[in-house]
Amino acid sequence: MQEPQGTSGRTSPTVVEAEKEKGGCDPRNPATWSPRRKWLVTLVACYFTGLTGATASAYAMGFPSMMRELRCTEEQAALGISTFCLGFALVPLLTSAFSEEFGRRPLFVVCTIVFTATYIIQATANNIQTVIAARFICGAFGSTGSTMVGGTVADVWAPAEYILCPLVFLRGRPMAVYSLFAVAVTGAGPVVAGWIEMSLGWRWIQWIHTIAGGLCIVLTIAVLQETRTGIMLTRKAQALRAETGYMGYRARAEDTRGPLRSLLWISATRPLILLFTEPTVLFFSLWIAFAWGIMYSMFESILPVFEGLYGFNHGQAGLTFAGMTIGSHLGFVTNLYQESLYQKYFPTRGPEARLFASCGAALLFPVGMFIYAWGARAAIPWIVPVLGVTLFMWATFIMYLAVFTYLADCYGPYASSALAGQSLFRNLMGAVFPLFTQPMYARLGIHWASTLFGCIAVVMMPIPYHRSPPWSSASVLRFRAFAVTFASPAISRPEDPREKPLREYRCTPAFSLN
């Protein structure tokens, strides 16, 4: 075994160090890339996010021709919405383990290819069962466009505390752009799909998505690079071992990652334990999951309102979903102000500085639902219920972004597990709500069904206002530690240096192994 010069007699492995350039930051560290390169990677990843959002909602606009061609009921067609969300909810429990083992880029490439292939299966299906099964696979592989993109954004953009390194740029606005693609495009899908349904039928909704998916594959292969620093340094250590013959070169990730089986166990169990033992994770997840379920129920409730009460055709009814997109953009603009508040008050308030805008969203949420409920009358202009949808989505966008960033700030090395738990709960509600939307609206009527949602939203209003919750007792903290440890019996997961208190570093440390 050949050793590098000066390593004779060494008994411990050589930890791979990243080279440093002037300024103290490794140029290969994704967090120190140029802003142009960062934005290019971010926007391509967010394109995948937007495509999955459009897929979730545009499908519902094809129900009329789908039911005629496949001879299925509306309830059977609606199962495609639920199975998509079910795949979207379950698979992310495993993908984080595969990303630790193989990196983000291989997952992106594989998932975009399979995700696009499911459009072809749907477009050529001869029965509703094939469509429902393809929708589940579509949601399963499309979930990477949500969970992995958030991680990619976190890899290349640093939070506010990394200001000591001049080559690092802040994460808040790119994360808001990611959230905009995740939420706003969900409303944009039906705007276009309604007219496609009227002129070409439901199969062409899928064929057009296939074209968009093909573009996503090309951009992913051409633009997206590996951003997970542990994987990059592992490859560097492997290259050094091959070049020098000295097998002592090791990346820290190689020794701390553990076997894939253990990673899968942690990835699948720790989010569930945090979800059900951490009240902060549970209540914030319940809050955004309820809003998410209502959003998916609107894919089925909006069309009867505007086609039945106002006599809109299918394309015109699809245009009313633009209220969702407008509301999301209002939320994006609101977040710019929220970011300034966060930077101002973080030193004194900590993670709670993320929640100023969400406190206003807690009020806006039920107001939007009540306007949607009681503005939907033939004697009242159609713009009034659209206004209610807009206010609801304005609140939902703010809530979505606040929950995402707040849990990430609160849970440090367990942030990915906390976010996976809320994502599971949120998408399960997206799967469940469409199953009872039609029966509930048929029994209660448009007004009282939406009022029920609004009343539940009122009950949830106090959630973002908490400051010192009563559940932070010593006994609960001890149980929390036990629960997290129980979720990972096979290996002891070290903290990710990127997730330690950031004041300890004068540069982005994730690329440094020492």
UniProtKB/TrEMBL annotation:
Record-annotated membrane-spanning stretches: 39-62, 77-95, 107-125, 175-198, 204-224, 272-295, 315-334, 355-374, 380-403, 447-465
MF (Gene Ontology): transmembrane transporter activity
Pfam family, one: MFS_1
Record-level GO BP terms: export across plasma membrane; xenobiotic transport
Chain coiled-coil ranges: none
Alphabetical list of Gene3D superfamilies matching this protein: MFS general substrate transporter like domains (1.20.1250.20)
Database matches in InterPro entries: MFS (IPR011701), MFS_dom (IPR020846), MFS_trans_sf (IPR036259), Sugar_transporter_CS (IPR005829)
Skewed-composition ranges (Polar residues): 1-14
Gene Ontology terms: cellular component: plasma membrane
Protein name: MFS general substrate transporter
Organism: Mycena sanguinolenta
